Amino acid sequence: MESVIQEKGNLSIHTENIFPIIKKFLYSDHEIFLRELVSNAVDASQKIKKLASYGEFNGELGELKVTVGLDKEAKTITISDRGIGMTADEIKKYINQIAFSGATEFVEKYKDKGEDGKGDKGIIGHFGLGFYSAYMVAEDVEIITRSYKEGAEAVRWKCDGSTEFELGPAEREDRGSDIILHIAPDSEEFLDEHRLRGILEKYGKFLPIEIEFEEKIINNPSPIWTKNPSELSDEDYLGFYKELYPFSEDPLFWIHLNVDYPFNLTGVLYFPKLRNDFQGQREKIQLYSRQVFITDEVKDIVPDFLQLLHGVIDSPDIPLNVSRSYLQADGNVKKINGYITRKVADKLLEIFRNDREGFEKKFDDIGLFVKYGIISDEKFYDKAKDFCLLKNTEGKYFTFNEYREQVKDNQTDKNETQIWLYTTDLKKQDAFVQSAKKRSYDVLELGTVIDSHFINALEQKLEKVSIKRVDADTLDKLIEKDVALESILSADDQEKVKKVFEEVGENKTAHIVVEAMPVDELPVVITFPEFMRRMTDMQASSGQRSMFGEMPLMYTVSLNANHPLIGRISTTESEDEQKALAKQVYDLALLSQGLLSGKDLTQFIQRTVATL
């Protein structure tokens, strides 16, 4: 048996295997090649600026724009820059040694230079694989380059995607590089000027060096998030919003993000006017890394409820995978997530405290967003509880604590629990709202798509508060007091009236009861249990089927024993007159709850007209 000798060595990677991997797997979308090559050209331009600022380049910087050229006949795409260029030795080091990042070495060398000590600011690449993304679309790639270094000669490098390359002298008068892609037959879609312009505008719209395509500059090198807020006006922020979302309404307000510890993060987040169908307004935040567009899928960076915001976040500290296409789990991601939540909450609280009236005017538009945050994020709730507003049917706004004070004297039940009444539809539930107002009860408006979940969250967070829809029961049961009304009807009369309504109702899903209510209360009140209503609303807002399936909802028919009409039914000797009167007031109650339709509704209208 052969003995095993202990030894140490280096793993060898066979480069002939790298090109199929790059072409098929490294980048999820082949259009990324243009982002990578243009980003490299921007890097080279940024580097020459830095060297000049450090006193290591004393020549004329001149115009530093990056140019993208298209030649349909030659089937080539050329990316040209006037950056630092490369010598023959640098090509061998940075191009022939795959995955050795020149940007990484540059950053390490100059990391302590500059006034802010951040030598890496503005240098994009960190992986060294960006150049080879060219082979996703090209069968041959050429580099013609000349280094900024004094006495440097121009060099030409060429490779057809195999492990063999050519390196030799070339003609180039100025410093910088031309990357020439000879497009492969299966990628000729990229020889279309509209396609190229679209890619450039998507990924390079805010690159820090001017990008020229077809003799036009396609980018804004100095977007507002790179500037100091003190330099900017409201018009600047609104103009930038229109640049991002040309067909959108103006935002309500915005937050300028700017932090350099414990991570670097800049950006501007806008609060749009939210609609009830807010799912369509998500994924509008764009993530950049040093002004290079990365993605608009920011669910790991931005908490779920904040994805309703619009705008831009830019951070070089966001961990990306090797293709820069996906976020990777990292401690910084959680820190950024928490910072954005805190910053948004602080901004809303500041606006509320500085301009309560203006905040109230905006709250109908941003309330959906604030409530979503309260439901889903405990840290946001800790601050939002001081500025989240409740609106009553009179159009007045209250914080949670203010509303406690508003209703504590009249809407505290016998168990010392405050009962907050609400309506989801002021018109449909008007009769119930008016009944509550007769008793000086206050009623909130909570009818947005998210309010059923919001109500649940509030009940869990607020002590000794129960929130009930105004038509979930009779008022005496919604807010139970120690004082009970006496019934005018005797027990026999109550039973008699109940049987009449059971006969005219013919509905096994209705539970009929006789209750002592105020004389001026409705003769018949139809209610659904709060639990059943709320669960149905929550499931509807989530797009789920009701947990009660196709079963008709059980409802309660409460007969007001003290109302004259109910008293008249109990004293009338004619059974036909009893039933006719009961049928009319019963159907009127059903109509108020939207439970009367078809033939029954037609007959109700006919009977009503006949009595006029």
Automatic annotation (TrEMBL):
<comment type="similarity">
    <text>Belongs to the heat shock protein 90 family.</text>
</comment>
<keyword id="KW-0547">Nucleotide-binding</keyword>
<dbReference type="Pfam" id="PF13589">
    <property type="entry name" value="HATPase_c_3"/>
</dbReference>
<keyword id="KW-0067">ATP-binding</keyword>
<dbReference type="InterPro" id="IPR003594">
    <property type="entry name" value="HATPase_dom"/>
</dbReference>
<dbReference type="Pfam" id="PF00183">
    <property type="entry name" value="HSP90"/>
</dbReference>
<protein>
    <submittedName>
        <fullName>Molecular chaperone HtpG</fullName>
    </submittedName>
</protein>
<dbReference type="InterPro" id="IPR020568">
    <property type="entry name" value="Ribosomal_Su5_D2-typ_SF"/>
</dbReference>
<dbReference type="InterPro" id="IPR020575">
    <property type="entry name" value="Hsp90_N"/>
</dbReference>
<keyword id="KW-0143">Chaperone</keyword>
<dbReference type="InterPro" id="IPR036890">
    <property type="entry name" value="HATPase_C_sf"/>
</dbReference>
<dbReference type="InterPro" id="IPR037196">
    <property type="entry name" value="HSP90_C"/>
</dbReference>
<feature type="domain" description="Histidine kinase/HSP90-like ATPase">
    <location>
        <begin position="29"/>
        <end position="173"/>
    </location>
</feature>
<dbReference type="InterPro" id="IPR001404">
    <property type="entry name" value="Hsp90_fam"/>
</dbReference>
<dbReference type="InterPro" id="IPR019805">
    <property type="entry name" value="Heat_shock_protein_90_CS"/>
</dbReference>
